Amino acid sequence: MNKGLVYVFTGEGKGKTSAALGVAVRAALTGKEVVIVQWYKEKKWPIAEHKLGEKFDNIKIYPMGSGFYKLPSDHATVEEHKKAAEAGLQLIANSLQQEPFLLVMDEILNAVSDGLLEAKQVQEILNKRGETHIILTGRTGSDPARSLLAGADLVTECRKIKHPYDEGKLAVKGLDY
Length: 177
Prior knowledge:
Layout: E1 6-10, H1 16-29, E2 34-38, H2 52-55, E3 59-63, H3 78-96, E4 102-106, H4 108-113, H5 119-127, E5 133-137, H6 143-147, E6 154-157
Parallel strand pairs: 1-5, 1-6, 2-3, 2-4, 4-5
């Protein structure tokens, strides 16, 4: 049996989720089954990518988050964030049993860096992937999160050189979300 590949899109720059979604759409356009689980993004957020399942029968997207972690305006407790992170991991484990072509674990590296999940939990999922390809996204701000890079087949770092937010410009619908 062939092992699925593990891709990682990490770094402090913009483009990690966008890269993962690009690969997901490419897979869907070839008729492959795709599952996307998002760790911080909430279902109620008006994010364009949440409509992917409406456009593609073979993409299932699950925003499992409770908002951004450690922000002053955040409305969820640490325990609620941990519960949401665990629910996302359980959803991935259940989805893996269906043997999709691709599983995207969006911002899971942030969840590990923030201490909401342990790297060993993610590694257990990777070890059980079979022929399913997996994409991990997020910042690797901690050693446990960085440890997941060692077993990856592809690691791409998105490095910020310049960003409109630095000049006070807000995210643009259709371009950034």
